[in-house]
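Hello,

Following up on my earlier ticket. Below are the two sequence lines again, exactly as submitted.
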Amino acid sequence: MDYTILIGGKAGQGLQTIGGVLARLFSRMGYHVFSHQDYMSRIRGGHNFYQLRFSDKEVSSSRKKANIIVALDLTTIELHKDDLEENGIIIFDAQSVKQTFTGQEFLNVPFDKIAVENGGDKIMSNTAAIGAVLGMLRLETTLLEEIIHTNLKKKGNDIINKNILTAKAGYSYAINECTQCSFAVSMPGKNGNMLIDTSQAVGLGSIMSGCKFYCGYPMTPSTAVMNYIGSKAQEYSIVVEQTEDEISSINMALGASYGGVRSMTGSSGGGFALMTEGVSLAGMMELPVVITLAQRPGPATGLPTRTEQGDLLFVLHSGHGEFPRVVFAPGNPEQGLYLTNKAFDLAEKYQIPAFIITDQYIADAQWTYESLDTDKLVYNDYRLRSRDGAEAESAYQRYSFSEGAVSPLAVPGDSKRLVVVDSDEHDEAGHMIEDAEMRTKMMQKRLLQKLPLIQQEIEAPFYFGGEKPDIVVTGWGSTYGIIKDAVMSLSKTQNIAMLHFSQIYPLPLSEQFDYLKILTEARITICVENNATGQFAYLMRAETGYKFTHHINHFDGRPFLLESLTGEINECIERL
Amino acid sequence: MNALSDYKGQEPAWCPGCGNFPILETLKTALFELGMEPHQFTIVSGIGQAAKLPHYLKCNTFNGLHGRALPPATGMRLANHEMPVIVTSGDGDCYGEGGNHLIHAIRRNINVTLLVHNNQIYGLTKGQASPTTTEGVVTKTQPFGANASELNPISLAIGLDCSFVARGYAADSVFLKSIIKEAITHKGFALVDILQPCVTFNKLNTYSWYKERVYHLDETYNPYDRAEAFKLAIKLPDKIPTGIIYKNNKLTFEERIQILKESPLVKQGFSLNSTLKELDTFY
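Thanks for your patience. The regenerated structure is below:
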């Protein structure tokens, strides 16, 4: 059992509410859910959709074909009717769509009328639609009633009751009228799953890593992380500040980090471009900071609400001069949680900037888990604090060579140790210098000695497949789920494997897992990327000398869909 | 702290006769008289000759990027609002490159003391016009004279209802010291614009030019009257008033943040276990 529901309409029609409630409902019932959103850069109107897949098996990608389409406007029917799966049904309200459709694949449900008759207000038509979907699937409304109770708690009992009546009426209408409905929905028969998207997971990861300060400037699709942390700020004592611009964000985050707390900032391409001088400052001052970058298509303002993996090389090279960094790109919320924690840990352990790269698709995509493994999460305070003794306070030097690559980072004001940091090249005490010998020694300590230590911390890529695969499909970041689903489905007929990188820079050493051997011994190796130039393939070539045999690149601002990716992989195989 | 000499930092690399020297000495004396030991405060700066000051004074130092001193100063105060933060900046650094940050630091009313060494010229890059250069002054990059009218930092700050606005003169140490001490102890964002002769590049605003114009606001002046302060700020510069031109008792940014009422962020502990319950909210 594996069904896809698409809810389409104009921005502002409430399709996110319908999608969000259905996703939550199915995950609570114990199904696996995967959802993604497609929206335009406007507040009202246009065409947006929310697509969710639910199944009794694991799902981690979006399909093109839908079993149920909830059309809140005419455009949705026109644009998506060809995406309807066999025996699929489009439900719509002929009155609001202002046109009627007949045939097996259409079901006219008077959402507005049901809402007015049962709830007294057209505003509840979305609740009628949710009820109708449940009726079509022959699922119960008990859990929906619970969700209505929780979601509308603040609005009072009257509103709750009216919504429940409306939901039940929508449900009954579909039970009675949808005689052609033939969905075979099996109950998963287990406890409810959790439902989380990657932006929330990154926010959660920062809270669980002891982040005390977050600042940023609103920019789609990065704002969701700030919203999430902001909503929890009071509870976990985090100061969240909306800055005047992104230049201020990174500098403010560095000031807070210098002050002794874990800090984070985030943006999307255009905003991150402004941050780069501050990234360089973090490199020179050796101050820990975590930066989350939610990619969207560029250049410049690009496609503000769409998706692309176009900023990998930009992040790798962001900031002038040479300094170490780590770059992580989670492929799902679970990795988002874990890698954010690891970014905070490594940023502080090595006093470097650490990056979490997502993109609109993965940032908004919701996944289900039975639970998330928090045993892997770590919290170590690497800073030198007053409790560590007052010894040698007068001899304290911020950039001392005596400890090797990582000098002790004290907290100003916490002891008599003076913390002197500078954007100019400096001596061990932190004061600016220009002499060649000190410059060389600082570069060796700050960069050349640190990088190999950092590389030791990077884990092997995710591998799925047999020992000697014929075909290896490789990806990074947000394509994890789609590649996994595509490779799983192709593995029935092919000796195919998947290789996914979420710890991108430094690249993992091949000592722990020899991914280069697997690649070189395979007949076909395909690098799948949501960009035009194959940035990860470029990085692999530059760092390891390995060149993929095939590339699949999309750069239309839309995510990969299961049917098309499977088809394209097959084409690569057939071409040979 | 026993002696003024305990604040001695590195040897300054300023031109002989530079107005930065008396400002440095005055700041040291002010800190000494306030009993603030070098580890008990932080000086933040951007880039420029004035921004080098923290190296010449023993203290916690964050010498960051051009124009960017105020954002890290804000971050520091939010991390630890018990630590006094002083920013030393120049007219190019603060009013040019960092203009946007200045507006928003005033708006936030973060409790930071900002000392702007205003020499009305770019020193470090060797003599170009700055935002406060008098209109028409000829420089190497403005050979036909600076085309823009000069920025008035005092009226700008009063316009933004800045919590503390003062003007000092580098060569008037005793009076400048009293202004700086008040600025540091003032609760809220304090801007002290310090008129500073640049002996190398500014041939107009010299020591003798200032001597003819600078005067002290007397004790009858009421700095809490915003309209009067504004009038004073926009007067033609035949005579230049120095002293505390405007102040108010607004709540600081730190005071408005609920979380900081308990203790500074840096002193609030963290345990991973206390956050585990957050996972339940996703079911």
